[in-house]
Amino acid sequence: MTVKALFREVNYQLSKLLAEIEDGDIGLPEIQRPFVWSRTKVRDLFDSMYRGFPVGYFLFWENPTNPKGTKQIGTNEKQQVARRLIVDGQQRLTSLYSVIKNRPVVDDEYRQAHLAIAFRPRDKRFAVPDAAIEKDPEYIKNISELWSGPKSRHRFQTEFIDRLRAGREVSHDEEDEIVEAIDRLYDLRDYPFTALELSAAATEREVADIFVRINSEGVELKQADFILTLMSVYWDAGRRELEGFCRAARFPAQGAKSPFNHFLTPSPDELLRATVGLGLRRARLQAVYPVLRGKEIDTGRMSEEVRTRQFELLRDAQKEALDLDNWHEFLGALRQAGYRSGSMITSRFNVLYCYVMFLIGWRDYGIERSTLRLVIARWFFMCVITGRYTGGAAETKMEQDLRRVIQTTNAEEFVEELDRVIDTQLTNDFWKVALPDLLATSAGYSPSLFSYHAALILLDANVLFSDVRIGDLLDPSVSPDLGAMDRWRLFPRKYLESVGVTGVGQLNQMANYAIFDRHGFRPNNESSLEYLATLWERHVPGEDHERVRFLHALPEGWEQLEYNEFLALRRKNIAKVIRAAFDKLRTGVAAIPGAVQPDRWSGPTVAELVAGIESFEVEFKQTAVGYGERFGKDKYPSNAVIKTVAAFLNTDGGTLGIGITDRDNHILGLEADFQRSGMDIDGYLNAITNGLASACGSGPIFSHTRARTEQVDGKWVIIIDVAPSTKPVYASTGKDATDKAFYVRANNTSPALNISEVPDYVATRWPH
């Protein structure tokens, strides 16, 4: 039985290969893989061809979906879609095309450069031009001029010999040899090549396998390489936009907006993931490639209509992904989560996939920017600390998350779904058991370590024994010298070795390190525990002991503890600090022992509330649940609660008591709601907080409200203290999250102003 080959052999002259590239018949994208060859490799390639040596074959792949003549999507170019795609031989073919056509290449740093190769006809020597060669008349400085310059071959030869004769004597025999050498160089355009052309029936997996087996350097073709190649073929302008964005992200721009940032210098294949996630709702690129080729899922046939439709989705998504406002708003969410630079991020997938969630929230649900930033900040915080998008399962986990958000139909459901996932991950067991276990590491580059640093930034902590803020020390935009931060052992190395602790894993335990200012007071390996105790008494005022001990996770009397006991306690304390920081992201309030709370949170107790009546500043609700208000389901909180809180924000503030009847001030409690919802008091309060943030915006809710709980005669009551907002707050209570109203307080009611009345009210209340 004859084996049917997946390839056929095709012979070319170099000039025909280059002509088909120019016509677009063979796809040669500039950065299918960036041009990474050195100039010496290009020199050696031409030297081998000149000597008649074989220089390898090319591997092409027949494009299955387009007949000759089909044009690219979204460009005004008349170049036809490539019928053959280059799989192997990209660097050689790019070198040949660049030198013979005198076209620049783009390297892996996105810099354009011409590949100049010199040639000395006297001894037929190729060289990479340098200063000496530039001054040497014996050399043709750039052989590209022979094929692509304005002069004919004869004139080129004549002028070269004339330049030689201006400096020395040239015999007729030498002249003949020079002419022959240049003729032979010119004839390289007819150098024969063999190409193996893979059938259109070959799958991308088979092509990748073939590539790895025949490629001498063992480079692996990734799924992104195939997709980027398709973009070059069908939507080259889009690929150029993608590459241009990545190039601009590498360098700060002077006086202009740019994608440059301190978190991520993306590559085209990385940003492609954001575009694909938003436009096609996929994370696994292996599943994306077939549909971009035009494969019909049901029949398996190739369809130009399918391909065109998928590329349109990709184009719309890329417009959002490369929008500089979107990009920097998202990066602001990372800062809001406490992170300051890429040096604090161990998985680039965490950044890229969180960007997808940001784009979905913005483009598809129109979530207000400040609200969305905070939602994504806590989502990112969770993803980092749990390693959600880390390792080989990152694509699979993101596929699951995309399927979850596909089921949501509006902004409120989208936010609720993300927060629901957060709640399932960051449970009490996670904070108390799993996280301390993750902190039991000696790695100096771990997500749990950087989560602790982010937490210290969120909680506005200073460096130990210093008044320098950790946030400033770790922020490259504030302190470019990141080396000013030091991590030193609390139990010094010399002391540990003296008590028998010698293993690197134990000596370098993360829980034994604290952040110090290199230019301030800090210990060293020779320090003693007594020295640290002296620094503590000297540089930490008594009133700050409790707060500083909490932030730096120092157990009471830690210097007296046995080392392993200290490590176990400090890991638990670090977990508490990280949890406090997350609570601040979630509710706007972090419980820090010894911290002074703002004076505005001095609302009445439950006893004081029920002793009075509803008024301009006091409101009672027997429940926070809107029964059947949310598409026939219970809503948390009810529209009545949303209106009251929004009205307090837009007026002079006030206090809302939930679990208290408004007729006789009777404490009803919330137990019936708990039973109906299956929540406890914490889950119930979280649902209210998230619902208010979704309806009124995270900014005013997290910065101008505080919720507290009290139990009276065994019945739970929630009190929400509301401070006056510093700007207008519009609230959404309907199905459409963009349909907002402006509520104010009038005696003991919360009416919505007529739309025509709002401008005058705002101008009077917030004149500046």
Automatic annotation (TrEMBL):
Residue stretches making up the GmrSD restriction endonucleases N-terminal domain: 14-228
GO molecular function: DNA binding
Keywords: DNA-binding
InterPro entries: GmrSD_N, Schlafen_AlbA_2_dom, Schlafen_AlbA_2_dom_sf
Superkingdom in the source lineage: Bacteria
Record-linked Pfam families: GmrSD_N, SLFN_AlbA_2
Chain segments annotated as transmembrane: none
Schlafen AlbA-2 domain location: 614-751
This protein's record includes keyword rRNA processing: no
Keyword DNA-binding annotated: yes
Protein name: Putative DNA-binding protein
Organism, scientific name: Herbihabitans rhizosphaerae
